Each structure stands twice: as C-alpha cells, then as structure tokens.
Amino acid sequence: MNEKILFVDDDANLLASCERNFRRQFPLDTAEGGEAGLKKIETHGPYAVVIADRQMPGMDGIQFLSLVRQKAPDTVRIMLTGNADLESAIRVVNEGNIFRFLTKPCPPDVLGKSIEDGRAQYRLVTAEKELLNQTLKGSIKLLTDILSMVDNQSFGRAQLMRDVITNVTAKVNAADPWEIHLAVMLASIGYVTIPPETLIKARAGQMLSKAEEQILTRVPETAARLLANIPRLEGVAQIVRYQHKRFDGTGLPGDSVAGLAIPLGARLLKILADMTDLQSANRARLEVLREMEGRRGWYDPELLTTVRACYGGKSAGESTVRETMAMTVNDLASGMILHSDVVTKDGTLILSAGHPINDMALEKIRNFEFVSGIKEPIFVQMPETVG
C-alpha cells in the first residue's frame, strides 16, 4: 500500500524543511496553500495522511481539512498551528474531524511519530472498509448462486434484464446504479421460500388456493426483509419491496406510496420485468412497448420513454452469438453457459440448458458425476465470443 503523505503550508521554507526531514522516511508531497493542496489531492491522491497549517491566507487550515474530509474521507488529517488557544482547537476538531492537533514549533520526532500513528489509523480504516466490501461481494455472490440453483427460471430472467440495465441506468442518471443492478439480480430471492409445487402451479397458470395466492403476494416483502438484514443493502431492499408497484399507486405493497415516491430502481425494475415477460412469448420489442404504453397508470411515463430510447440493437432475449463446444465434466469452467441439459446417466435432470456455470453449479455437477455419473458430452457456449 502506497501510504503517501501531503504537507500543506503557505511557508515555502517550512515545506522545504519538511522534505529534508521526512523525505527518506515517507513518500512525501507538498503544496503551498489550501487551493494547491486540494488540487494535489485530486491529481496525486489518495493520501494516507494530510498535515496542514492552521493559519494560511485565502483558505485557512480548518476550511482546507474540512474539504479534505469531504473529498477523501479515509485520509487522516493532522493540524499544525502556532495559535494553540482552546477555542481554535475545539473548532478544528469539530469542523475538520482532526486526528491529531499539534503546536508549532513541533519537534521532528513528535511530528514523525504522529505521522506514523496517522498511517496506522489509515491502514485500520481502509482494511475495515475492504473487509466490508469483500464480505458484501461474497454475500451477494452466494445469494445469486443459490438463486441460480434453486430457481433457474427467475435467475435466467434476471440475466436478461442485467444485460441492458447498465445503459438504462446511465441514461436516467441514477444516483446509485449499483443498487439497481443488485435489485435486478436479487428481486426474486423471495421465491426460495415458496413450496416448489406452488411455484410450478403458478408458472403453469393453474388455479391456486387462497393460501397459495397469499404466499405469492408476500414474495417481494419477504425478499425485502431478507435483504434488509445485509448491511448497505437497505436501498436494494426498498427497490425489491416496490418492484410490482404501479406508478398510480395500485398493486403491491398496498400502501399509499405512488408516483415519484416509488424508488427509481423499483419503477425501472417494473418496466424491465414486464418487458422481459412479454417478450418471452417471442413478441417483437416495439409491439411489446406499444402495449406497455397503453397501460395507463402502470409505469412512470418519462422513464418508459427513456427505456424505449435506450433499446437499440438486439432485442432483449437475443443472445450474443457464442461459440458452442462439446465438453466433459472435467472441462467445464465458470463463465460458460449450458447449451444442453445436464443429466445423470440414469436420466435425472441436474441443470437445464441456458443455465450459467458458476462455482456452485460446477460443484453440483461434479458431485452428481461422483455419485451417479453424468452423460457426456455436455454442450456449452463459450463466454464473450462474439460472432
């Protein structure tokens, strides 16, 4: 980790002295004044520690470090000042969230020890953030892998929507597009709680009992509760909760939320999900869009217009042309897509054609190969081979 240090002061002689004292001890940059310091952060950051003088013309140290906190919240901030009055110190700590407050002149060994402590604090903060990010990514991957195994149909539907979501979220200037991406992939996670026979009946259009209908209506709320338990996925949970809500406020959940009060991601997910379902019957995209535009009150009209403008090139559901190859079980790898069903030698279906091969799918196939044997060859489509 390159834990660089930035000294900011309006005194060029003091900066030169800092370079002489600490250049060999730390990777070090300097800047004359607050404005130059902010530019340095933008062009040469990130910095582990920023040390700034309290009294500088134009932008003082308090203002500067407050802006550093906004632009680089992980950076540890240290204040140097020759004016050590209590009121000034309190203001510095409150407004700049300062790690350490030092008075001038500060002996090099004291300043050096403070910098080392600041770098240790920076390592702690960034390590915790990295751990959280990796834990979150791992949790999401596990959830999507489970969904792909338990409910392949819903997972395949999400894959179709994911292929176009990036373009759409860019056009609508979504504040947190990653939340919408995750909501698309995890919107149907609640189906893992549904009895398989109920799900089969619902998808076959068979008559359901009142109890089964109630179970199905609770799926978005169930999914939202599951996701809300994961840190940082509260926004994703709200999108999933309102994924079936119509723009006029009808639909589920049965509350008073309507119009622009519905999360943007939920309004977008409603459009993409309905479009994908309608196109599953091999209907042309423009035909589907015309039908959706006639559904008054169902969709955010401006968002629907934007979505229609985004859909150029292939229709949703049209796959990129990929090379198809025959494989043995040992040849399979993550990223491939099944072009044929995977079945055991006694005819038991393991995975259907169209299922993406991920780590969980590989483990399942290999386990069945070990116990029952798998019919070979297995035909797969290779990833990212455009024809």
Write structural notes for this entry.
- It is a single chain.
- By secondary structure, this protein is of the alpha/beta class.
- It folds into 3 domains: 5-127, Rossmann fold (3-Layer(aba) Sandwich), CATH 3.40.50.2300; 151-310, Orthogonal Bundle (Hypothetical protein af1432), CATH 1.10.3210.10; 324-381, Molybdopterin biosynthesis moea protein, domain 2.
- The chain has 15 helices and 10 strands.
- It has helices at residues 12-22, 34-44, 61-71, 86-96, 108-150, 152-171, 177-186, 196-203, 210-217, 219-228, 234-241, 264-279, 285-293, 301-310, 359-371; strands at 5-9, 28-32, 49-53, 76-81, 100-103, 324-327, 337-338, 342-343, 349-351, 378-381.
- A 5-stranded parallel β-sheet has the order 2-1-3-4-5, with helices on both faces. A 3-stranded antiparallel β-sheet has the order 6-10-7, with no helix packed on it. Strands 8-9 form a two-stranded antiparallel sheet.
- Strand 1, helix 1 (12-22) and strand 2 form a beta-alpha-beta unit.
- Helix 6 packs antiparallel against helix 7 (177-186), helix 11 packs across helix 12 and helix 12 (264-279) crosses helix 13.
- The two termini are 42 Å apart.
- Residues 312-321 have low confidence and may be disordered.
Whole-number average pLDDT? 84
Helix content: 40-55%
- The total beta strand count reads 10
Largest sheet: 5 strands, parallel
**Major beta sheet, strand line-up:** 2-1-3-4-5
CATH topology of the largest domain: Hypothetical protein af1432
- Decide which structural class fits the backbone: alpha/beta
Low-confidence parts lasting 5 or more residues at pLDDT below 50?
312-321
**In angstroms, what separates the terminal alpha carbons?**
42 Å
Q: Number of helical segments?
A: 15
Radius of gyration: 28 Å
The shape, in one word, is elongated
CATH class of the largest domain: Mainly Alpha
Order of helices and strands: EHEHEHEHEHHHHHHHHHHEEEEHE
Q: Tell me the β content.
A: 5-15%
CATH architecture of the largest domain: Orthogonal Bundle
The CATH H-level superfamily of the largest domain is Hypothetical protein af1432
Number of domains: 3
